[in-house]
Every structure is written in structure tokens, then in C-alpha cells.
Inverse folding.
């Protein structure tokens, strides 16, 4: 029995030893030819680029304790079982190089993921040899100063699931066959302003999740078959050259959370019924899409919206109360329409608003205090609206995050008192109002972040305490076309624009004006 027990123990120890060997041997070091390829790529980079503290290649060494195993180098990922390099992430490394067709990167044939985003490839074209990496499912070359033609060889990379070529200088026609890749989930070629192309017919088996071609020269009509992209979450076609009608089949894409069709060349339309089913939308941008008519009641269903922009259209009628169901809204832009009536006081329910623009409509009156409960407001634009300031002068109520206030041509007769407490204000526009009297001294100093102040075309007569303006942040000052008399305040030393024309300022200027070294435009 003892011998049998000893045998079993020895056999058990043998198994443990064997398993240890298997575990050790399966945690493989990288292959020599791939290690050599990576080192050759590093050597092709300028010394200042490869040695930068930001460059991930700085850890790639030909000798040293960790030099044998390239799998331990920054930005390199290997398969645990085979040791082959399957991932390369050199994003945001401040590399300055040219990507040549003979680059040794293209010998890493087991790569599944390649990320070279946010570098400086000095107007290199994308080499067709990238298609040798036939196992790639993820390619990100965004914001890296690539130019030239997108190689049509990409359309043969059957395993590609995500392709991001955005924010570059790519020219020519987009290879339309890329749209037909059977596994492509994400395509982003936005911000290539000279890239031409058109949308193909989409079939019902297309797996697209994201399609972003904004800020390109894509043109033609949007095919009705786009509605076949039932799994699409994001569709961004803004600032292109699409014409014809907005297809109502977009309403079939019920998984959409982000839709932007802004700034194209669509036909005039009042049909927004296709929006009804898109209740998962969190961002909707239909700026300048030639829409007209009344805002539809279906907006009541969009309770997930955080961004809604319908600016630069021809919407009429009053703001419907159903908009107040959108309690998640952070951005609401209804500017440059033909909306009428009064702005509803129920706006105070939208407590998450950060950016609100209702400017350039035909509203009959706006009571400014309805926005005072929106404590997150950073941008408020009511230009062209008749504003009533009904907050008492002794009130110290403020909008604590307010950074930009545009009240241009609002029939104001006095400075909004709450500005004294707007400590984060960066830009103040009060031009073309009916404000009389002195420019209060506090207007220059209410915020130490104030960069722009526009008080032109009012009836201002004098400065309180007309000495040097102590603000260090002011860059642009426009107090032209008023009735100002006396000495000009000395602007801060970093001022770029100081416009004082069409006032009653005496001829001589203070010698202290010479200390404003950066002023590029003094208009008098």
C-alpha cells in the first residue's frame, strides 16, 4: 500500500511538473522576425520622434533586460498562445515620420489591431501595402496628417470591422466597395474636406453600427435603402453636399442614438413624421436642412435627448410645451427660425441646460428671470428677442457657470444687474440696444476671465472711473457708435481689438496707449 501511495504521489508530482512546463512554454516570447521588424520601424523614425518622452517606441530597445520580449514593449500586444504581435497602439506618440510602402510594419501579418492616430505623418499617403495585414479588424489612422487617395485595396480586407481615417487631408474618390465589407461595423472618414464620394444602396444584412462622413464632399442623394441599416447607432452626414429629400426610411433605424444631417442641400420639406420612432435619440442635429412648418408634437417622446439643434430653418408658431419633456437636454438651439409668441416660463424645468440659443426669431417677449433656475447654463443667446429684466436691482442672483451671454438687439435699456455676479463670463455681447448713461466700472471686472465685450450701437455717454482697465484677460473691446465723451480707458496690454469710432472722444490719446503692445486693430 505504501509503495502504491508513493507511486501515486510521484505520478501527481509528475503531472504538476508537466503542467508547469506546458504553462511556461505557452507563455511565449515574441518572435525574432517581428521583434526585428518593430526595431527597424523605430530606426526609420527621426531620433527626436522615437526618443520623445511621449513616444511609446522609447521603450523599444535592442539590448537590455526586456529587449528579448517585444511583447512587453509599450503599445505592443501579443497573442498569449502563439507569441505573434496582434495589436499595435502607437497613438498620441508625437511621431513625425513618413509611412513608406516598404515599412516593416507591413510584415506583421498577424496584426488584428493597428492604431496610429494623433501623430504627424507629414502628408504621407496611406500605402496600399497595408492590405497585406489581412487579419486586421481595427484600423485607426485619424488625425495624423495623411493625404492623397484612400487605397482601394482596403476594400479587400474582409476581416475589417472598424476603419477610422478622420481628420486628415485625404483626396480623390472614396472606394465605394469598402461599404460592402461584410463585417464592417464602424466607418469614419469625417473631416477630410476634399474627399468625394456617394452612398451606395444598402442591403438588409449590413451590420453597420456607426457611419460618419461629416465635413467631406460626399454628394448625391441619400438612398432610401439607408433604412436597411437597422443596427445603426450613429449617422453623421453634416456639412456634405447631399441633395434631394431626406428619406423617410431613416425612421426605420430605431436604434439610432446620434443623428446629424445638418448643412446639406436638401429640398424644402415639412415632413418630420419619420422622427416618431427614433425615441432612443440622445443627439439630434437638423440645422439648415430646409425644414419648415410647426415643431411636431412627437418631440414629446424624445426624453433621452441631450442635444437638439433645429437652427437655421423655417419653423413657425410657438415653442410647444412638449419640449419641456426633454429634461435631459444640455444643448437646445432654435435660433434663426420664425418662431413666435412668448417663450414659455416652463423653460425653468430644463435644469440641465448648458447651451441655450433662441436668438433671431419673432418672439413677442422674454422674461430673463425664467432662465435663472438653469444653474448649469454656460451659453445663453437671446439676440433679437425683446428682453424684460424683471429681477430687482438688489438681487445678487447669478448664473454661476455663465461664460457667453449674447443679448444683441434685445431692446435693453440698462445693463443686466446680474452680470455683476457672473464670475465665469468670457464673452458679453450687448450691442444694438437702447442702453443709456455711463458704462459702469464693474462691467470690466465682474469676471477675471472676460475676453470679449461688445457694447457698440447704444447711447452710452461716459465711463465710470476712466482709468486703465485692469483685466488681464480682455482681448476684444468694441464700444463704437455711442455718445462717449472724455478720456478713453487704457485697455489691457494683451488687447487685440479696441474699437471706439463714432463717439465724442477728444483728439489726443494718452501716451499710456503705447503700452498696449499686442493691439492689431485700433479703430477710431
Amino acid at each position: 500500500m505504501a509503495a502504491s501511495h508513493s507511486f501515486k504521489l510521484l505520478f501527481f508530482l509528475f503531472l504538476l511538473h508537466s503542467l508547469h512546463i506546458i504553462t511556461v512554454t505557452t507563455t511565449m516570447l515574441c518572435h525574432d522576425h517581428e521583434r526585428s521588424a518593430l526595431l527597424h520601424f523605430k530606426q526609420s523614425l527621426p531620433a527626436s520622434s522615437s526618443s520623445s518622452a511621449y513616444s511609446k517606441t522609447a521603450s523599444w530597445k535592442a539590448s537590455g533586460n526586456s529587449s528579448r520580449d517585444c511583447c512587453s514593449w509599450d503599445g505592443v500586444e501579443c497573442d498569449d498562445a502563439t507569441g505573434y504581435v496582434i495589436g499595435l497602439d502607437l497613438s498620441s506618440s508625437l511621431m513625425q515620420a513618413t509611412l513608406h510602402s516598404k515599412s516593416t510594419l507591413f510584415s506583421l501579418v498577424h496584426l488584428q489591431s493597428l492604431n496610429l492616430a494623433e501623430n504627424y505623418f507629414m502628408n504621407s499617403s496611406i500605402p496600399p501595402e497595408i492590405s497585406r495585414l489581412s487579419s486586421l479588424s481595427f484600423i485607426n489612422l485619424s488625425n495624423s496628417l495623411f493625404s492623397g487617395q484612400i487605397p482601394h485595396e482596403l476594400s479587400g480586407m474582409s476581416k475589417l470591422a472598424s476603419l477610422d481615417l478622420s481628420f486628415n487631408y485625404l483626396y480623390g474618390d472614396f472606394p465605394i466597395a469598402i461599404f460592402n465589407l461584410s463585417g464592417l461595423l464602424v466607418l469614419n472618414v469625417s473631416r477630410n474636406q476634399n474627399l468625394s464620394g456617394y452612398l451606395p444602396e444598402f442591403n438588409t444584412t449590413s451590420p453597420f453600427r456607426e457611419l460618419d462622413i461629416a465635413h467631406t464632399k460626399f454628394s448625391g442623394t441619400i438612398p432610401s435603402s439607408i433604412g436597411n441599416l437597422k443596427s445603426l447607432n450613429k449617422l453623421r452626414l453634416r456639412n456634405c453636399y447631399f441633395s434631394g429629400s431626406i428619406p423617410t426610411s431613416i425612421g426605420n433605424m430605431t436604434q439610432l442614438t446620434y443623428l446629424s444631417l445638418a448643412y446639406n442641400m436638401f429640398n424644402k420639406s415639412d415632413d418630420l413624421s419619420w422622427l416618431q420612432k427614433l425615441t432612443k435619440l440622445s443627439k439630434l442635429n437638423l440645422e439648415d436642412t430646409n425644414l419648415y412648418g410647426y415643431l411636431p408634437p412627437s418631440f414629446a417622446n424624445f426624453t433621452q435627448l441631450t442635444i437638439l439643434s433645429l437652427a437655421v430653418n423655417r419653423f413657425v408658431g410657438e415653442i410647444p410645451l412638449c419640449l419641456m419633456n426633454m429634461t435631459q437636454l444640455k444643448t437646445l438651439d432654435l435660433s434663426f427660425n420664425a418662431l413666435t409668441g412668448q417663450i414659455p416660463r416652463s423653460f425653468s424645468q430644463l435644469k440641465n441646460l448648458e447651451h441655450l440659443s433662441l436668438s433671431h426669431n419673432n418672439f413677442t417677449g422674454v422674461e430673463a428671470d425664467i432662465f435663472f433656475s438653469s444653474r448649469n447654463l454656460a451659453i445663453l443667446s437671446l439676440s433679437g428677442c425683446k428682453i424684460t429684466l424683471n429681477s430687482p436691482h438688489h438681487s445678487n442672483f447669478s448664473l454661476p457657470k455663465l461664460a457667453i451671454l449674447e443679448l444683441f438687439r434685445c431692446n435693453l435699456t440698462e445693463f443686466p444687474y446680474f452680470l455683476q455676479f457672473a464670475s465665469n463670463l468670457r464673452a458679453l455681447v450687448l450691442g444694438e440696444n437702447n442702453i443709456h448713461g455711463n458704462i459702469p466700472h464693474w462691467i470690466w471686472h465682474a469676471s477675471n476671465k472676460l475676453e470679449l465685450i461688445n457694447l457698440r450701437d447704444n447711447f452710452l455717454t461716459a465711463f465710470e472711473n476712466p482709468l486703465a482697465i485692469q483685466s488681464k484677460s480682455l482681448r476684444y473691446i468694441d464700444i463704437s457708435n455711442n455718445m462717449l465723451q472724455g478720456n478713453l480707458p487704457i485697455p489691457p496690454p494683451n488687447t487685440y481689438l479696441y474699437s471706439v469710432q463714432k463717439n465724442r472722444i477728444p483728439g489726443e490719446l494718452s501716451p499710456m496707449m503705447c503700452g498696449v503692445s499686442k493691439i492689431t486693430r485700433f479703430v477710431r
